[in-house]
Amino acid sequence: MAKVPTLSLIIIILFLAISHPTNSQQFSTKVFKRPERLINLRFYLRESIRGDAPSALVVAQAPTTPTYRYNFGRLVVFDDPLTEGPNLSSRAVGRAQGMYVYADVDDVAQLMVYNYYFTEGRYNGSTLNVMGRDTPLLAVREMSVLGGTGRLRGARGFVRIVEISDDVERGVIVDEHDVNIYLYTRSI
Ligand SMILES: *[C@@H]1O[C@H](CO)[C@@H](O)[C@H](O)[C@H]1NC(C)=O
Ligand SMILES: *[C@@H]1O[C@H](CO)[C@@H](O)[C@H](O)[C@H]1NC(C)=O
User: Fold this and answer.
1) In angstroms, what is the span from residue 119 Cα to ligand 2's centroid?
2) Which is deepest, 8, 38, 72, 138, by most CB within 10 Å?
3) Entry pTM
4) Strand locations in the chain (E)
5) Is there a contact between 153 and 146 (Cβ–Cβ < 8 Å)?
6) What is the rounded distance in angstroms from the CA atom of residue 112 to the CA atom of residue 47?
């Protein structure tokens, strides 16, 4: 007998919970079901830190940065060319433009914030916006793609970076960038 009031109470609470959203809706909300695509982009990045026209510059650091073993506090700005293949003479597809700061006291690790800006093909003029922790001494690293613009608007996913070569004498690093993003088909 004691169960009957409990049951009707549950029914009343359920009724209130279901009816509440329609009563309180005061602004327009629309839900669109759109199919998602997984897109893979692969290209190569070349960063030169020395020579006549370096693509990466140290722009700031703390007076005490040299006392740290791993450049803690150093800020670097870069505008690195992206090419179709690992060779310098390979077709240009865009740039990686942004900055990184050495943000780890005990390791070589950087906070990276940059854009891929594409200048060729289907994604000419579009960007992808990347952020993450980079550990350049590791052969493979991963960072997040947080967004995109143009034909890549609303993209999200990740980039896997694999070192191809590191010419310490000339100060030239080449990395393969393997970008995997989800994109809605009607994002334009
Ligand atoms: C890069 O391109 C140059 C000029 O086209 C060519 O001589 C060289 O063999 C290429 N290197 C590789 C590793 O493909
Ligand atoms: C990319 O877009 C720019 C600006 O619209 C245009 O000037 C350029 O010719 C385009 N490049 C290619 C390869 O389509």
Assistant:
1) 7
2) 72
3) 0.81
4) 36-48, 56-60, 75-83, 92-102, 110-118, 127-134, 140-149, 156-167, 172-184
5) no
6) 14
Q: What is the C-alpha separation between 169 and 166, in angstroms, rounded? A: 9
Distance 86 CA to ligand 1 centre (A): 10
pLDDT per residue over 46-98, tens digit each?
999 998 899 999 999 999 999 999 999 999 999 999 999 999 899 999 999 99
Domain ranges in the chain?
36-187
CATH topology of domain 36-187: AOC barrel-like (2.40.480)
Determine contact, residues 58/75, Cβ cutoff 8 Å.
yes
Nearest protein Cα to ligand 2, atom 11? 120
Residue 171, token pair as written in the block: 């100060």
Q: State how beta strands 140-149 and 156-167 pair.
A: antiparallel
